[in-house]
């Protein structure tokens, strides 16, 4: 089944938006080979921007502005929320145009992450009406959720996204993706990591959040980029990484946490809001919440 057919029954603007982002994803992927240099600029987080980050961000912004499908757009590469006059829809989106971009030079999987709202995006993730990501790996895949299941499509040789997995449910699994530096772990996090290791969990951490969470969505287990000594809020962003991927995993039967509560319950304090991230199976998420709750 093609993506367009699968989207039948959803609101027209949402159907068009998912298809549009899929088309933009194809354009972004084609741009990788000729844009691997590092640019001379930094994003709002002080991170050096790859030429590709900036280009991909602009391709998405221009494409979505021209589509008239988006009124509000927040991007990991932009300091403020953009508002598009003349939009025919009230959709708000968050975008991480190229999560994991530092891995392109070593040919590891990276992706475009999108959160979808009606109206403002500066609300808790539980207000989201959908989320999706395009993963550029050995396959180019598109995974979307509009609150009626999580569904994955693969780009076929004809350039069509065709259904690969429908109604994905996160299984039980013993892999974990532990970000950050062990010697800086906070007490609760270290206890949790040691419990997973004692239970035989194997490390699967690539440096690409979207790719690592995609693997856990299909195989079970948990991803974490925790708060650490000296950086208690962690590295990853609530709006651009935690909420959209957390929404998809929760909709697939999993759970999220900042170490204490669902990521989707958190009121963002701005576009740059960083949070400790735990995304994966309910068992692993309940364990970190219980450990921290007992501290
Ligand atoms: P880049 O987009 O700069 O490559 O960062 C990727 C990321 O935001 C996320 O995708 C990874 O899980 C995390 O950073 C990796 O961080 P470390 O490089 O500190 O392990």
- The structural domain count equals 2
Low-confidence stretches: none
Structural class by secondary-structure content: alpha+beta
Morphology? globular
Index terms:
D-Maltodextrin-Binding Protein, domain 2, five-stranded mixed β-sheet, alpha+beta, eight-stranded mixed β-sheet, binds 1,6-di-O-phosphono-alpha-D-fructofuranose
How would you characterize the overall build of this protein?
The protein is an alpha+beta fold. The chain folds into 2 domains: 3-165, Fructose-1,6-Bisphosphatase, subunit A, domain 1 (Fructose-1,6-Bisphosphatase, Chain A, domain 1, 2-Layer Sandwich), CATH 3.30.540.10; 175-293, D-Maltodextrin-Binding Protein, domain 2 (3-Layer(aba) Sandwich). It is 30% helix and 25% strand. It contains 7 helices and 15 strands. The strands form 3 sheets. The chain has an 8-stranded mixed beta sheet with strand order 4-3-5-6-7-8-9-10, sandwiched between helices. Strands 12-11-13-15-14 form a 5-stranded mixed beta sheet, with helices on both faces. A hairpin with a 5-residue loop joins strand 1 and strand 2 (48-50). Helix 2 packs antiparallel against helix 3 (51-67) and helix 4 (187-198) crosses helix 7. The longest helix is centred in the N-terminal third of the chain and has 19 residues, at 12-30. It is globular, with a radius of gyration of 18 Å. The protein starts with a helix and ends with a helix. The mean pLDDT is 96. Bound molecules: 1,6-di-O-phosphono-alpha-D-fructofuranose (AFP).
């Amino acid at each position: 089944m093609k993506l367009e057919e699968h989207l039948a029954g959803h609101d027209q603007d949402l159907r068009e938006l998912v298809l549009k982002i899929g088309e933009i994803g194809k354009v972004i992927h084609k741009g990788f080979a000729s844009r691997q240099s590092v640019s001379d600029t930094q994003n709002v987080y002080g991170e050096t921007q790859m030429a590709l980050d900036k280009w991909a961000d602009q391709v998405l912004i221009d494409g979505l502005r021209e589509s008239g499908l988006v009124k509000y757009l927040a991007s990991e590469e932009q300091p403020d929320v953009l508002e598009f006059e003349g939009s025919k829809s009230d959709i708000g989106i968050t975008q991480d145009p190229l999560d994991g971009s530092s891995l392109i030079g070593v040919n590891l999987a990276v992706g475009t992450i999108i959160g979808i709202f009606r109206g403002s995006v500066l609300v808790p993730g539980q207000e989201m009406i959908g989320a999706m990501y395009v993963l550029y790996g050995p396959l180019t895949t598109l995974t979307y959720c509009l609150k009626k299941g999580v569904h994955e499509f693969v780009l076929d040789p004809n350039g069509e996204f065709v259904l690969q997995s429908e109604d994905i449910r996160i299984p039980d699994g013993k892999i974990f993706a532990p970000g950050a530096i062990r010697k800086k772990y906070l007490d609760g996090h270290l206890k949790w990591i040691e419990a997973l290791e004692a239970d035989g969990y194997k490390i699967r951490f690539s440096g690409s959040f979207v790719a690592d969470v995609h693997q856990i969505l299909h195989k079970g287990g948990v991803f974490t980029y925790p708060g650490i000594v000296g950086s208690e809020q962690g590295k990853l962003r609530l709006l651009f990484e935690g909420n959209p991927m957390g929404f998809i995993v929760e909709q697939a039967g999993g759970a999220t946490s900042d170490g204490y509560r669902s990521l989707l319950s958190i009121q963002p304090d701005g576009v740059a809001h960083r949070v400790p991230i735990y995304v994966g199976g309910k068992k692993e998420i309940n364990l970190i919440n219980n450990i921290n709750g007992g501290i």
